[in-house]
Write a structure and sequence with these properties.
By secondary structure, the protein is an alpha+beta fold. 30% of the residues lie in helices and 22% in strands. The protein has one domain (27-148): Gp5 N-terminal domain (OB fold (Dihydrolipoamide Acetyltransferase, E2P)). It has helices at 4-25, 72-91, 95-98, and strands at residues 29-38, 43-48, 61-65, 110-115, 143-148. A five-stranded antiparallel β-sheet has the order 3-2-1-4-5, with no helix packed on it. A hairpin with a 4-residue loop joins strand 1 (29-38) and strand 2. 14% of the residues are buried. The model has no long low-confidence stretch (mean pLDDT 89).
Length: 153
């Protein structure tokens, strides 16, 4: 027969494991690599970089909306590069050579994504209010990309 202390310890271990499983099943925020990027629609397919505890790779997240702050600078620089080149040619400067060689939001970029608190299936992409389709919460299906991390250029 187990002592009271052994029983308490068994309960503690069981509850700790249950709590850990609950925490690991809640998606919140993580880092991923962009596998595919549609710069017209501003959505990306991403591969989360963190594996599961057993080493299994996470499934890719598809058509994840990209926050405007991730691509606006890229779009602005793309429009301004020809103008900077004209300035370089006119005054002999080297502004263009100092600009990033690659856009920040691209295939291969490392990004931060968050899982929203609620299901976003009924969101139309605007500032209009919406009613969630389900009771789904903190789910990878409701992720958005909120930032890029560094650059390799």
């Amino acid at each position: 027969m187990k002592s009271r202390g052994e029983i308490n310890k068994s309960w503690y271990v069981a509850i700790s494991r249950l709590v850990h499983r609950i925490y690991t099943s809640i998606d919140s925020a993580s880092i991923a690599r962009v596998v595919k990027y549609n710069k017209k629609k501003h959505v990306a397919d991403i591969q989360p970089l963190a594996n599961f505890a057993d080493g299994t790779r996470s499934a890719q997240f598809l058509d994840v909306p990209v926050s405007e702050n991730c691509y606006k600078t890229d779009e602005l620089l793309e429009k301004l590069k020809p103008e900077f080149a004209k300035v370089d040619a006119h005054v002999g400067s080297s502004i263009t050579s100092k600009l990033p060689k690659k856009p920040r939001m691209r295939v291969g970029a490392i990004v931060v994504y968050v899982a929203l608190d609620r299901d976003m299936d009924n969101w139309d992409g605007t500032g209009n209010e919406f009613t969630p389709e389900s009771n789904r919460t903190h789910d990878a299906n409701d992720s958005i990309i909120i930032g890029t991390l560094g650059s390799d250029d």
